[in-house]
Design brief:
The protein is of the alpha/beta class. It has one domain: Spore Coat Polysaccharide Biosynthesis Protein SpsA, Chain A, CATH 3.90.550.10. Helix content is about 30%, strand content about 25%. Helix 3 runs antiparallel to helix 4. It starts with 6 loop residues before the first strand and ends with a helix. The structure holds uridine 5'-triphosphate. The site of uridine 5'-triphosphate has 22 residues, from helix 5.
């Protein structure tokens, strides 16, 4: 039986250059989709999947994230005094217990693989999830919960995938597939950003992974790949053949909040889903479009 996944790594040490100037002093992960920072969506997704330990790989200027998940006694007391129960519940809903949140620093943004490697001592010798918080998913059950369920059947390494326009493969990590039942694809290779002529498929990796701890020994070698960065995709590719490795299609929508258009789209989509906002937002948008 597959060992359960109880720890999740959230790499949040990137510079967020595509979101400047907003990210000059605000971490990209603290930008809000409607009224919650994007990192909170990822934490809630992980919690729904049964994650008990949340590991943030952070860098300079990112302490706002730790503050966000901490208690805020002065704020709570004021909201209580003013009878603002809904606001109080929303603020407390964003808490993580002291024992649940660990932060570790990535001193330099040397790549996603390096960010994950920085969490190796906290993860230890057990399977773990990785969530890239700037990808926000609208899915029920949550995307990681769907993955944990599939992982219970296939074990090994499991990454979320989606089909992309064949002409756009050069933007993504792409799967080379062995067999495919329409939901789960057994993977025989991973190719970082292939040109359409040489792409082995149009199944692209999205920012959710369940990995076995053996990946750390590969990341230890600090080999650089595309963009001279230590790439998680390259390290994962080396696990193929040694351990089961699957890609999982999922039901739900993906919003790339690290991209300005994706971020705006996420705000509209999540607002239209809210009973308290949908009518007003629809009205405001109909005047614009
Ligand atoms: P991105 O490339 O999307 O993030 O990395 P970025 O570098 O912050 O953004 P841009 O391209 O400059 O706008 C995907 C995820 O990996 C993390 C990022 O924080 C993001 O969540 N990351 C990336 C790290 O934590 N460390 C790194 O060295 C690189």
């Amino acid at each position: 039986m597959a060992r359960p996944v109880k720890k999740a790594v959230f790499p949040v040490a990137g510079l967020g250059t595509r979101s400047l100037p907003a990210t000059k002093s605000i971490p990209k992960e603290m930008l809000t989709v409607v009224d919650k920072p994007v990192i909170q969506y990822a934490v809630e997704e992980a919690r729904e999947a049964g994650i008990e330990e949340f590991i943030f790989v952070t860098s300079r200027g990112k302490t706002a994230m730790e503050d966000h998940f901490d208690q805020h006694p002065e704020l709570y007391a004021t909201l209580e005094r003013r009878g603002k129960e809904k606001e109080l519940a929303a603020s407390k809903g964003a808490e993580l217990a002291v024992s649940q949140l660990t932060t570790v620093r990535q001193p330099e943004p040397l790549g996603l693989g390096h960010a994950v490697w920085c969490a190796r001592h906290i993860v230890g010798d057990e399977p773990f999830a990785v969530l890239l918080p700037d990808e926000v998913f609208k899915a029920e059950p949550s995307l990681l919960a769907q993955m944990v369920q599939a992982y219970g059947k296939v074990g090994g390494n499991l990454i979320a995938v989606r089909e992309v326009e064949p002409a756009l493969t050069a933007r993504y990590g792409i799967l080379d597939v062995d067999s495919d039942d329409g939901t789960l694809a057994s993977v025989k290779g991973l190719v970082e950003k292939p040109k359409p002529e040489v792409a082995p498929s149009n199944l692209s990796i999205v920012g959710r992974y369940i990995l076995q701890p053996e990946v750390f020994a590969i990341l230890d070698r600090k080999e650089t790949g595309a963009g001279d960065e230590i790439q998680l995709t390259d390290a994962m590719a080396k696990l193929i053949g040694r351990q089961p490795f699957h890609g999982m299609r999922f039901s739900g929508d993906r919003y790339d909040c690290g991209d300005k258009a994706g971020f705006v789209a996420a705000n509209v989509a999540f607002a239209l889903d809210r009973d308290d906002l949908a009518g007003k937002v629809r009205e405001a948008l109909s005047g614009l479009i």
